[in-house]
Specification:
The chain has 15 helices and 10 strands. It is of the alpha+beta class and about 550 residues long. The strands form 2 sheets. Strands 3, 4, 5, 6, 7, 9 and 10 form a 7-stranded antiparallel beta sheet that branches.
């Protein structure tokens, strides 16, 4: 008796512990049956008004990138897309979720007698009421072990005077455990879907970070495009003003009769061409500013999109002597930090898991199972006709009920033991073989893709590093050009004051200086963009800009 009780406790313990860890919370049913909210409410752009001053949006580069991370729709899409593989991990845990099942059925039937005893006892018809019920709790553990605990029984009554119990109450307590011995026999193998879901999440996370790197690169490029477009407009307006001043001088010469009327058309044509250039630069600036507003989400607000922009970040990147990059070191950092490469490497790890899972599906399936059942019976007991009392009368019915049934069942006096082995041997499993071959081929493809990724990263890093060095050299030369343009303008002014040079040469010298200054700004912006591209390839851009992805 003691051994049977201990056995029942051991078999029931897993279900008790599982119930304690997974029993529904107080709001379980409210959450389960609540109506699913399908409406999505997108929030308005945030933080932009914090940078509004004197009717303008003033932004440094760091402030601009802060708004980009907070409001850029493309970046929000990337962040939200990571929720799908995160739920994939949750779904993988679902394989070990416990299940509780309850059932109750009542059946009342009326039929003709089917035997001589039925005919004697019921004369014409037989009536029967059957009410079976069952409660079951089952779960599969990550070791592959499946267990089930169930309580079942039935209450039956019928018009048959030959039955010993009427109504008859039965109950049974069943425990069963099964364990795979070949296929799915270890914790690691059974956790492969979960590990694969976690690996898939890492792949998605690296891919998301790679996309955000590109989006931040695009956003910062838009910032510098506005800086460049504004400088271009400023220089073009200076060139137009100098052209207008020269036309005014020539008009004065014409009015004094010192100039032929035929010579006035050339400066007028130059001024018209300058106006065209200014118009093109102005609309190019408008397009660049619209692209910038799109990056920070200001285009979503009717008021904010009307405010002018003021960018406070200087185009000058500072001393270029400290901007030295070792080409091979940059390649090494890129191969270690670039999220696109990390994603390619993680895909190969995912493929290894897929190969192991496919190989497991090829194995025979041998399952060992054990079971134990304790039974009880009760109800109103009718002694047989041979049970005669001393006074010669038949023995009366003996009342009974569910208490007798439970006493017998938990007394474990009527046990049933069961043990067995079930072998499923795949004679030929083409589907599993094809799955394994596909998994191996996929790893080969991903290995080649990873090597191709390495080569592309190396080439791109070397290209960007070369571009940085070229931009540094071009900036140095543009500064020299600007210095000579200043000296030339000073010389032309001195000559004009001495009367040895005409006003036309002074104006041309001013245009040359303005063009040289624009070239310096473009070279400064070009250097910043080259460094930006290099940081993007090495995967350091987010850290350099102080951006943290949750």
């Amino acid at each position: 008796m003691l051994v049977r009780t201990v056995l029942a406790v051991i078999l029931a313990a897993p279900s008790v512990l599982a119930q304690q860890s997974s029993f529904p919370r107080a709001g379980y049913f409210r959450e389960t049956f609540a109506r699913t909210q399908t409406r999505v409410e997108l929030r308005a752009p945030v933080k932009i008004r914090d940078f509004v001053a004197s009717g303008k949006i003033e932004l440094s580069l760091r402030q601009f990138l802060e708004l980009v991370m907070a409001n850029n729709t493309d970046i929000q899409v990337q962040l939200v897309s990571l929720e799908i593989p995160r739920y994939g991990i949750m779904a993988a845990f679902g394989a070990w979720d416990p299940t509780a099942r309850a059932s109750f059925t009542t059946t009342r039937s009326t039929g003709l007698p089917s035997s001589a005893l039925d005919a004697i006892s019921a004369a014409v018809v037989t009536k029967e009421l059957t009410q079976p019920y069952s409660l079951q709790y089952s779960q599969t553990l990550d070791t592959g072990t499946s267990y089930s605990v169930s309580f079942s029984g039935a209450k039956t009554s019928e018009t048959n005077s030959f039955l010993s119990y009427d109504p008859s109450i039965t109950a049974g307590l069943q425990f069963s455990v099964s364990q795979p011995l070949i296929r799915n026999r270890s914790r690691y193998i059974n956790r492969l879907p979960l590990i694969m879901a976690q690996s898939s999440y890492k792949v998605s996370d690296y891919a998301m970070r790679s996309q955000i790197l590109g989006l931040v690169n695009n956003a910062e490029t838009a910032y510098w495009n506005v800086v460049s477009a504004r400088e271009t407009l400023r220089v073009d307006e200076q060139a137009r003003d100098t052209t207008a001043a020269y036309l005014k001088f020539m008009q004065q010469q014409l009015d004094l009769g010192a100039l032929s009327p035929l010579d006035i058309y050339n400066p007028k044509a130059n001024l018209a061409a300058a106006e065209v250039t200014v118009s093109q630069a102005r609309y190019a600036l408008m397009q660049a500013e619209d692209a910038l507003r799109h990056q920070i989400g200001a285009d979503l607000d009717p008021q904010l999109r009307q405010l002018p922009l003021t960018l406070t970040e200087p185009a000058d990147p500072g001393p270029t002597e400290s901007m030295t990059f070792d080409r091979e070191e940059e390649v090494r950092k890129a191969l270690a930090l670039n999220p696109a490469r990390k994603s390619a490497v993680e895909k190969m790890a995912y493929d290894d898991l897929g190969i192991q899972s496919a190989h497991n599906a090829l194995l025979p399936n041998l399952i060992f199972s054990v079971g134990y059942t304790s039974q009880g019976r009760g109800g109103v007991f009718y002694p047989g006709s041979s049970s005669i009392l001393e006074d010669g009368t038949a023995a009366p019915p003996i009342p009974g009920g569910i208490g007798d049934v439970l006493s017998q069942m938990f007394g474990f006096g009527y046990p049933t033991y069961q043990a067995g082995l079930t072998l499923t041997l795949p004679i030929r499993s083409r589907a599993a073989s094809a799955a394994l071959g596909t998994a191996v081929a996929q790893k080969k493809l991903d290995a080649l893709a990873e090597r191709n990724q390495q080569q592309n990263i190396r080439v791109q890093v070397l290209t960007d590093a070369t571009a940085v060095e070229g931009a540094k050299e071009q900036l140095k030369l543009s500064l020299v050009e600007r210095d000579f343009a200043k000296l030339n303008l000073d010389a032309e002014n001195q000559k004009y004051q001495l009367g040895t040079e005409t006003n036309q040469n002074v104006i041309l010298a001013q245009q040359t200086l303005a063009s040289a200054e624009l070239n310096v700004v473009n070279c400064q912006v070009g250097l910043r963009k080259s460094i930006l591209n290099l940081l993007t390839q090495t995967g350091e851009l987010l850290d350099e800009r102080g951006i943290v992805i949750p």
